[in-house]
Amino acid sequence: MELGSVLQFLENKSILVTGATGFLAKIFVEKILRVQPNVKKLYLLLRAVDSKSAVQRFNNEVIVKDLFRVLKEKYGVHLNSIISEKITLVPGDISRENLGVMDSNLTEEMWNELDVIINLAATTNFDERYDVALGLNTYGAKNILNFAKKCVKLKVLIHVSTAYVSGERSGLIIENSYKMGETLNGASGLDIDMEKKVVEQELNQLHAEGASEQAITLAMKDLGIKRAKIHGWPNTYVFTKAMGEMVIEESKENISLVIIRPTIITSTYKEPFPGWAEGIRTIDSLALGYGKGRLTCFLGDPKAIVDVIPADMVVNAITVAIVGHAKQPSNDLVIYHVGSSSRNPVRYHNIQDYGYLHFTKKPWINKDGKPVKVGKVTVLDTMASFHRYMAIHYVLPLKGLELVNIAFCQYFQRMYGDLNRKINFVMRLVELYRPYLFFNAIYDDTNTENLRMAARESVVETDMFYFDPKYIDWGDYFLNIHIPGLGEIRKMKREVVVEDAAGAVDGGRSGVVKRAEDEVVSGERKRIGAES
């Protein structure tokens, strides 16, 4: 595979990026504007009803971010004119045909001009409403493909999925595709159109019964988990992402299609500067909870590999894949695992050690201005040990409160009901995360390594488009880049966002017990974010 100059390829190219307010999309847009301002056009699709709403979202959720400070320093007062010239905002919704774009002139323009499409739009909630997840992650992928087929100049379509479409499989996970109707448990009968009909029938029945919006949401969440488990996937997110892959492979025809499967995406390694992340991603809640002295125990296997990869490496892998497959289009689908477990694995106990070293040397300062002293945490390395922990600390006290409530003629009913609800939420949360807390797999990256080799041999700007995790010193990264960056996020009082998957999963696996205790003790519920 001859790649040549990435910058030269990007020059005068038109690129559509979906999910433009999402974590990876922002990093991609910043990178392109910074290294190749002579790109012809970046079309950014945002979920919005009209142009005004799209502009508001772009201004409030994208360009205002600290991520763009290097770009602002580079171009100064000229940045606004560059953005006006190079960026076209596209209000739409990928869950609809034609991507929900209402402006027919803009649609025609994109069909005639686009060279590359990158689909980064997704909902990453593990237990998203099934109708929403199916619309975005499965049929959204299909809609992107159908749109791509109308683009007369299109050279390549990049679909960003998640490595965790592998479900709970263990061992070495190969960069293979999932055929239409394939399941992880061998069960027959997976029909994606039938899944849509199941959703429609359930919604019709709920509306006929006069169900409240809250009841409908809960029913749709439960339906997604149920349908996922029937076919062998642990949650709605990875199930609908897997079906999205099936749909586009089945219908790709002569489109040059590449699927990127990142693992757990963390803060930037180098560019535009080390340590940028958006909000507190799930793997980070573990570190912060520990540093603040709130993490008393950890649920998971300390020896398990935590397959993490910095966000800028994912973006660089996407960019190099664009060049390679645009220059040498193929009718064969190519899949790239972008992670670290195969080349440079890091384990949970490593991260625990890094947290201890960091917060011992640079302790968290609490609201009273005093340093928080950290120590070793109790490790619950089996689900049985977790259930014992919950029984002793929460379930038995709840039983006692129930008896007291009865004795005092329901005087403590509100307290009892509140605690019972929180414990039930915790158990649901742990069940969602359980497959990843004891994850025992390594993601083969043979295709990705071949791409890296091609880049080393023929890319002019190898230092600019790095994506080899083998060169990461994880101790240095976590101690001097990633964990300090989390503190900066909190100091700046940014919104706390927990992103599960493609992450999220692509965002990583978190300290579930810590989050569980937060819920039981304080009732605090963190919002689970979605790429949009």
Please supply descriptive tags for the structure shown above.
532 residues, alpha/beta, 18 helices, 14 strands, disordered C terminus, Fatty acyl-CoA reductase, oxidoreductase, NAD(P)-bd_dom_sf
Task: Detail the topology: elements first, then pairings.
Layout: H1 6-10, E1 14-18, H2 23-35, E2 41-47, H3 51-61, H4 69-75, H5 79-86, E3 87-92, H6 104-113, E4 116-119, H7 130-148, E5 156-160, E6 171-173, H8 192-208, H9 213-230, H10 236-251, E7 257-262, E8 264-266, H11 282-291, E9 297-299, E10 308-310, H12 311-327, E11 334-338, H13 348-361, E12 378-380, H14 383-407, H15 413-437, E13 441-443, H16 446-458, H17 474-491, E14 501-507, H18 512-522
Parallel strand pairs: 1-2, 1-4, 2-3, 4-5, 5-7, 6-13, 7-11, 8-10, 9-12
In summary, what is this structure?
The chain has 18 helices and 14 strands. It has 532 residues and is an alpha/beta fold. The two termini are 33 Å apart.
| Spatial separation of the terminal alpha carbons | 33 Å
Query: Helicity, in percent?
Result: 40-55%
Major sheet attributes = 7 strands, parallel
What is the average of the pLDDT values? 87
Which structural class do the helices and strands define? Answer: alpha/beta
Radius of gyration from CA coordinates: 23 Å
Measured by DSSP, the beta-strand proportion falls in 5-15%
User: Total number of helical segments?
Assistant: 18
Strand numbers in spatial order across the main sheet: 3-2-1-4-5-7-11
- The beta-strand count equals 14
List low-pLDDT spans.
493-532
The geometry reads as globular
Domain Thioester reductase (TE): 17-318
Function: Catalyzes the reduction of fatty acyl-CoA to fatty alcohols.
Family: Belongs to the fatty acyl-CoA reductase family.
Enzyme class: oxidoreductase
